[in-house]
TrEMBL record:
InterPro entries linked: Tyr_Pase-like_PTPLA
Known role: Catalyzes the third of the four reactions of the long-chain fatty acids elongation cycle. This endoplasmic reticulum-bound enzymatic process, allows the addition of two carbons to the chain of long- and very long-chain fatty acids/VLCFAs per cycle. This enzyme catalyzes the dehydration of the 3-hydroxyacyl-CoA intermediate into trans-2,3-enoyl-CoA, within each cycle of fatty acid elongation. Thereby, it participates to the production of VLCFAs of different chain lengths that are involved in multiple biological processes as precursors of membrane lipids and lipid mediators.
Protein name according to UniProt: Very-long-chain (3R)-3-hydroxyacyl-CoA dehydratase
Subcellular location: Endoplasmic reticulum membrane; Membrane
UniProt-listed GO biological process terms: fatty acid elongation; sphingolipid biosynthetic process; very long-chain fatty acid biosynthetic process
Keyword Cytoplasm in record: no
Database matches in PANTHER family: VERY-LONG-CHAIN (3R)-3-HYDROXYACYL-COA DEHYDRATASE, VERY-LONG-CHAIN (3R)-3-HYDROXYACYL-COA DEHYDRATASE 4
EC code(s) of this entry: 4.2.1.134
GO cellular component terms attached to this protein's record: endoplasmic reticulum membrane
GO MF entries: very-long-chain (3R)-3-hydroxyacyl-CoA dehydratase activity
Membrane-topology descriptor: Multi-pass membrane protein
Substrates-to-products reaction catalysed: a very-long-chain (3R)-3-hydroxyacyl-CoA = a very-long-chain (2E)-enoyl-CoA + H2O; (3R)-hydroxyhexadecanoyl-CoA = (2E)-hexadecenoyl-CoA + H2O
Length: 186
């Protein structure tokens, strides 16, 4: 069943990841108090890996790494969305707050490693089939070799991971200190 993950729930995952773009709108409107750039990077990473790397290469869809990615993404989202829903209703459940701001620090780097692994697995297929590689005609005489774009994206992915982890630590510190302060006052 691990190899059939994409075939079983790929459509639902693509729909959910497209809907996750609404998180950016929620931040812009003020519904969510998260920082825009880290959330934008996280959503963009998922969309690029899901739609560009996995969805476009049928050979990659049957790999075990797809199951690992979906599991990590869903685990993070279940905790985050449950925390956000309760926080919007005014419920502050300290164990869930701790889990939300601690689990992501552990699982996000694992998620990035899984994304990088999926990209590395897909590189031979992009090289063989030439998917998304473009050669522009004369007067430009310029070509874009997509495996090079993906290799460059790997560098951006790991650089972005460092920025996002730093943001996750600062969010964790702010929320957990605020939670302890409220607890001590009551």
């Amino acid at each position: 069943s691990l190899a059939d993950t994409f075939y079983s729930i790929g459509l639902v995952m693509r729909l959910c990841q497209l809907l996750s773009v609404l998180e950016i709108l929620h931040i812009l409107v003020g519904i969510d108090k998260s920082r825009l750039i880290p959330r934008f990077l996280q959503i963009t990473e998922r969309i690029v890996v899901l739609f560009v790397v996995i969805n476009s290469q049928e050979e990659v869809q049957g790999k075990y790494i797809v199951c690992v990615l979906f599991f990590l993404w869903n685990l993070l989202d279940v905790v985050r969305y449950t925390y956000n829903m309760l926080a919007r209703t005014g419920i502050n459940y300290l164990p869930l707050t701790w889990l939300n701001f601690s689990l992501c620090i552990l699982l996000y780097p694992l998620s990035v490693l899984a994304k990088a692994f999926a990209i590395c697995i897909s590189l031979p297929y992009f090289e063989t089939f030439g998917t998304y590689s473009v050669k522009l005609p004369f007067p430009f005489a310029f070509s874009i070799y997509f495996p090079y774009v993906l290799k460059t994206y790997l560098l951006v992915l790991f650089t972005g991971m460092c920025f996002i982890i730093q943001n996750l630590f600062s969010e964790r510190k702010a929320h957990l200190e605020m939670g302890n302060f409220k607890k001590k006052r009551s």
